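Weekly puzzle thread! Below is a chain. First person to post its structure in C-alpha cell form gets bragging rights.
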Amino acid sequence: MINVGEIIRSCRKKVNWSQEQLAFEMNMTQSTISRMEKNKVACDVNTLMDIAHKTNAPDVVMSMMFSIDMSVVAQLFQAIPMVSSWGIFLWFM
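Winning reply:
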C-alpha cells in the first residue's frame, strides 16, 4: 500500500521546508499538512501532484509510488530530457 503521507513528508524534506512553509505554498494550514503526513486526512492526486510540483520533487513521488530506487528515477529523467517529469509520471500511471 502506498503511504501518501510519507511521500508528502519526503517531498517537503527534499527542499528543507517546514510544514508551515509547505502549508503557505499550498494555501493550507499547517495542521492540514500535518494530518496529511500522518494519513489522517485524504490527499487527492491533484494535491499530491501540486505538492510535488511546488517542491520540485516528482522524482520522489515516482520513486516512492512505484518502489523504484531514486538513482533509477534520476537516470530515467536524464535519458528522456524532452519529456517533462510529469509526462513520465502520467505515463507510468
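Puzzle host: Confirmed. Bonus trivia for everyone else. The longest helix spans residues 4-14.
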